[in-house]
Automatic annotation (TrEMBL):
Domain of life (superkingdom): Bacteria
SMART domains for the chain: FCD, HTH_GNTR
Molecular-function annotations in GO: DNA binding; DNA-binding transcription factor activity
High-level lineage: Bacteria, Pseudomonadati, Pseudomonadota, Betaproteobacteria, Burkholderiales
Pfam families in the record: FCD, GntR
Name of the protein in question: DNA-binding transcriptional regulator, GntR family
SUPFAM superfamilies hit by this protein: GntR ligand-binding domain-like (SSF48008), Winged helix' DNA-binding domain (SSF46785)
PROSITE patterns the UniProt entry points to: HTH_GNTR
Keywords of this entry: DNA-binding, Transcription, Transcription regulation
Length: 295
């Protein structure tokens, strides 16, 4: 497990930064004060709660001044992962000043990270109130899944025609590691391996851009994935779905690989409702769909 993870850290840092230290909709909707629970009292800036500040202090230790990745990118990555993993919960206030102090950096890279986080839909800026971790939008989860399915089914079809024996062995090794992570109920390691599995398929057709394109799109999906494990979406079920994708690739059966990928990515539609009901404070009110994106 450790050897494989270390290889991820060194080989995928530039192309897939979301894999590193994983415990791991482009459209920005109009901001309304009803989107997030913020006390009506103070119009002044709100500081993060002590537990959130403690979480950020721990995250600050993950920054590497010697890394080739810019500091702003590192801050974006660690804050996003903290939001995904629930270390920074919906409604948590974040300020450029406070984050820059905790991370021991200037405010400019923090501002850059906040802009990217807002664009990916996980932070919300409320004028005269501050910046807060945004609730999960069920509609954006469905939109992200719809777009991700369109891209990843096309990728896996192409991969079925061109994948090499070496690339198949890499996926098989990843699947073996997933089983080990599931056996000890290490959901953080499992999610990192899940990310790597999908990334490796895109890399097998020399189209890393496909994977990079969906990173912001799937941000809301990733937050739901963290909440779904291990009970709502059992790890063994997800492993079986990955195994079907791999079987289609091994057989060079594009139709089978595509169908397996489609079924896998639609699993979130099954878990979304139960998770939202169990964690109502994490979710925005759902919006009706004029055109159903879940079929």
């Amino acid at each position: 497990m450790v050897v494989w993870q270390d290889r991820l850290d060194t080989t995928c840092l530039d192309t897939a930064p979301t894999f590193v230290h994983m415990k791991l909709s482009p459209r920005t909707a109009p901001t309304t004060n009803s989107d997030i629970a913020v006390p009506r009292v103070a119009r002044r800036r709100v500081e993060a709660a002590p537990e959130a500040r403690a979480a950020m202090s721990e995250l600050a230790a993950r920054l590497s001044p010697d890394s080739h990745e810019p500091i702003g990118g590192q801050i974006f990555r660690v804050l996003r992962q903290a939001i995904f993993a629930g270390r920074l919960t919906p409604g948590t206030p974040l300020s450029e000043k406070e984050v820059s102090e905790v991370f021991h950096v200037s405010r400019q890279p923090v501002r850059e990270a906040f802009i990217k986080l807002a664009e990916s839909g996980v932070l919300q800026v409320l004028p005269q109130r501050g910046t807060f971790v945004r609730r999960i939008s069920p509609r954006r989860v469905r939109e992200g899944r719809f777009i991700r399915e369109a891209i990843e089914t096309a990728v896996v079809r192409k991969a079925a025609d061109s994948i090499t024996d070496g690339q198949l062995r890499e996926l098989a090794e990843n699947l073996r590691e997933q089983k080990l992570a599931a056996r000890v109920n290490d959901t953080a390691a499992f999610l990192a391996l899940d990310e790597a599995f999908h990334y490796s398929i895109a890399r097998s057709i020399d189209c890393i851009a496909a994977w990079e394109t969906i990173q912001d799109i799937k941000a809301q999906m990733d937050r739901v994935r963290y909440l779904s494990l291990p009970d709502v979406s059992p790890l063994d079920l997800l492993i079986r779905q990955h195994a079907k994708i791999l079987a289609g690739l091994r057989a060079h059966d594009a139709a089978a690989a595509e169908e397996a990928m489609r079924a896998h990515l639609r699993e979130i539609l099954v878990s979304l409702g139960p998770i939202a009901r169990r964690n109502p404070e994490w979710f925005e009110a759902d919006e009706p769909e004029r055109v159903t994106l879940s079929t």
